[in-house]
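Async update (no meeting this week)

Hi team, since we skipped the sync, here's where things stand on the single-chain job. The sequence we agreed to prioritize is pasted below, unchanged from the tracker. I ran it this morning and attached the output directly underneath so nobody has to dig for it. Comments welcome in thread, and please keep replies under the output.
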Amino acid sequence: MNSNHPVFLDKFRQKQTIAPWLPIGIIVAIAAIVFFYRIDDESFWIDELISLGDVRDGRGLPPRNLMRPLYYILLSVWVQFGTSDAWLRSLSVLFGLGAVVLLYWLGCRIAGKAEGAIAALLFALSPLVINHAQEVRMYVLSAFLCIAGSLALTYALERPQPRAIGAWILLRWLAMLAVPLNVTLTVADAALILWIYRKRPRTYIPFGVAFAVLGALWVPSLLTTLQEIDPDSRYARSDHVANRQSPGVADLVRLFKFYTVWPFAVQSDAIAANFYKLFTLVLVALPGAALLQKHRDSRLFWPLAWFAIPIGEIFLFSQISLSLWVTRYLLFAAPFAFVLLAAGWTRLWRQWRIPAVAIAIAYLIAVGGGLHHYYTVDDRTDYRTFVETIETQEQPGDVVVWAIQHTRPRLPLDHYYQGSAEIVEREALIEDLDAAAIATWLDRLPPISSRLWIAANIIRDNREPLKTAVERQFNVREYRDLDNLQLFLVTPREDRATPSDDRLRSSAYGVPGEGF
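Output:
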């Protein structure tokens, strides 16, 4: 065939146009599958319900929330088009898919096309990333903005023009409005700018102006953040923060396992535990294969700075003040770790194929175990089943005793419950109680004329004593045991007096909830 024929040339140009996009197209397709797969299988956990509650009552929106309002602003728009669990979680999926594309782009610019594709694939297959991409929270949005800001800075470092510098500062500010800890990236940015332009100090001026603008933009959020992290603040004194342990050196190493596999325990299986320990050590060593080679690319120190400096800042802060070492808080640094892992593996592949293949196989096994755990093990409290059981079986005159541990215990009801029963809130059974204390708790329940639902959040040691006490005092028509939740549908025993409707609604027996 004549190669100069117009049809041949058109097909050739088309192939040349499509071919460069095939790797990232395939990776985005894989990411879409794993991000959307079983997205609404599990109930919202309490933090997701907090997100919705904060949008519903305005707590998450300015001016009541100046610390991290960005995700709530976006969610307040998103909820106008749907309220199903899958729809609400899909907002994070969109940012997850965007993060995959941006990470590919960043990896290509810093290390090469192969490294960019591998980094994007590692990000897409991370069970930790998938978990937060299937969550009504701000952590994947945070990662998306952090990658975007670093990508913009790569252009500004090459040619410090106003457009590139402006895009970088804008994206860093938005990232800080998503999660305040993202401010730690600006220290890494400053280190890179100082080093790269050390022989051209005049170039510091536009970057210095940009930092001043960023500081001015962040002042309202900064003041709120400083109040929140003060050791005497309500947040710092809350149980889940005050009891949080400061990280150790081992936690720095395990972070690679958490990023790539999942922070689940495997100690019950000695072989699996040893495999994951060895796997984690190999991951920690991989970046060295890229950074310590004789003809290394100096640009690989850029993702190293964006990963190591913020993690180091948070690690040190957690030693001297309240601990902020929570895996989801550290998710924003994961993309840069994936670039380093990808660069290390590709350089190993070019020099020693057999070890590279062995590491790739081990990685697939490890990630496969993490994905299997994520998709098959229910780690979230099943509020949805809990509430829907009541709603689908309730009858006129039913009363629900809602004894759930939280500062805002009605959040699961606000999202899932569409019924009409009267709601009475009571304290949760979250302390170790003896039989007499449990009996006293039951005696203080509202008297019933027909049917009473008891929805209780309890600790494990109270499960059987509560069940035994309820069976002794009532006729149990329905019983569900859902992890740390117990649900009873009871009716009066024949030997117990039936109260009047006036006593049923008496405030002496509890605080009635609002009707639905």
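Quick observations from my side:
Residues 505 and 512 are 8 Å apart (CA to CA).
Residues 6-376 form one domain.
Reply here if anything looks off.
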